[in-house]
Amino acid sequence: MAAAAVSEAWPELELAERERRRELLLTGPGLEERVKAAGGRLPPRLFTLPLLHYLEVSGCGSLRAPGPGLAQGLPQLHSLVLRRNALGPGLSPELGPLPALRVLDLSGNALEALPPGEGLGPAEPPGLPQLQSLNLSGNRLRQLPADLARCAPRLQSLNLTGNRLDAFPAELFLPGALPLLSELAAADNCLRELSPDVAHLASLKTLDLSNNQLTEIPAELADCPKLREINFRGNKLRDKRLEKMVGGCQTKSILEYLRAGGRGGRSKGRQEGAEKEDRKKRRERKQRRESGEGEEEVADSARLMLKVLHVSENPTPLTVRVSPEVRDVRPYIVGAVVRGMDLQPGNALRRFLNSQTKLHDDLCEKRTAATIATHDLQAVRGPLLYAARPPDDLKIVPLGRKEAKAKELVRQLQLEAEEQRKQKKRQSVSGLHRYLHLLDGKENYPCLVDAEGDVISFPPITNSEKTKIKKTTCDLFLEVTSATSLQLCKDIMDSLILKMAELSKSASENKEEDALSGTEADPSLNQRAGKDGQCPLVVEQVRVVDLEGSLKVVYPSKADLVTTPPYVTVVR
Description:
Blueprint: H1 2-9, H2 11-18, E1 23-26, H3 31-37, E2 54-57, H4 70-73, E3 79-81, E4 103-105, E5 133-135, H5 148-151, E6 157-159, E7 183-185, E8 206-208, E9 229-231, H6 240-248, H7 251-261, H8 264-290, H9 295-301, E10 304-309, E11 319-322, E12 332-339, H10 348-361, E13 371-376, E14 384-389, E15 395-396, E16 404-405, H11 406-424, E17 445-449, E18 455-458, E19 462-463, E20 475-482, H12 486-516, H13 523-528, E21 537-546, E22 551-555, E23 568-571
Parallel strand pairs: 1-2, 2-3, 3-4, 4-5, 5-6, 6-7, 7-8, 8-9, 10-21, 10-23, 11-14, 11-21
Antiparallel strand pairs: 12-20, 12-21, 13-20, 14-17, 15-16, 17-18, 18-19, 21-22
Helix pairs in contact: 1-2, 7-8, 10-12
């Protein structure tokens, strides 16, 4: 009877055992109650599936600990994803040893500390000897275990963003401690100091320590031989010239400045001379401001401008009307128009699409919290209607596919997903298939319809081929939808537009470098630039109204795009 009860409560486990699956995904409605009934832990039956390579348990507010038996029962586990649960304050018992584990994601939990016996695993011998990627972001950690490098000596990527760390353990930067570490992210913490021993990270390529409490950047950072990308924005550095550089200059320039400022008397002399010149320029700017002549220079000195165009200033504003049926499906939507993007140089389009994917994985919590859609504005016919339709009535031409009814599309994706599972002996899948469960039990599906009656968006699944972004796209319509929160839509839209500003700034800097090197630039780009050579992005307000025309939300309002990086100036 007990075995039958377990099978009934956890049918996924019985199916995985019967089909000898190598991947298992536990999520969705009902999971929280089942875990709660199991004492806030995973069921012991799960740890009798020794063939598992991939295990994911996400979004379960009642999961406080994985439970005993994981390390012994899942010796072949390659990836363990336990994100957005309630793990904490420690891990009891500790996770390791897991000799084959390569990816560990514990982000979005309530972890406060990982001491010996309640952490990732033993240090001697290493508990996670093959671990390559560790994500501890979005927890409450105040310190890292001192033996982290010994526990996971082959670590390549370490994400600590959004914790409460005030220092790195010295053991992390010992010579040879983490010889393969190439990515270190610890933004949004309370870090006060970065040790000069960071230079011992011989493979480091990307370092993000933005929004901390650092006052200095050690000159030794420039000795990291492979370092290509750094982010120190949001720190109050004593060296004001360096603080300005980290807000607007490329990594190469910052590292050169650190080399010059951290070596020998001549270098020190050059640094002092540069600081003296900076002080002189600041005095001159202050005098001009006091005499009323400095306002234009403040605008000219901005690295990149975001000009907000109010609805009242726009002769052809875009409007989204909302049908009441979406209230029970996906009630929240925010829109914006951005003009002036340049997606033609190099891999600019790919970087833009990759940044959207990253936002989907992080802030949007793999589309479970919200979904972003971007459209070529030239192909959008307004006004738009945000509605909900029965699956048989909703037709769309999905990206890269032929026209289909939503019901047919979802069925086709389900068949593809099942085929993937059978071929690879997996339960989890990739691509659009990952989001199908978000439509479970819905009688109507949400959609965005243009003035010609064409569905241009079917959240959270896909956009339409009609409004697909191309390299030649320069004006975009952006939408963010959510089933949970309007403020979340606005926050994600803020992040998307600021990311677009960052990409635009990068493209502008690359054009400046091309000009310095004698490379010919596209003359059409110069025509779009202002008198100072910049190409400001214009963000047009989009109103969301009900069918009677009453305002529901307008974006961006005065409360949006408030917190911006130093290199972005918002003009309203």
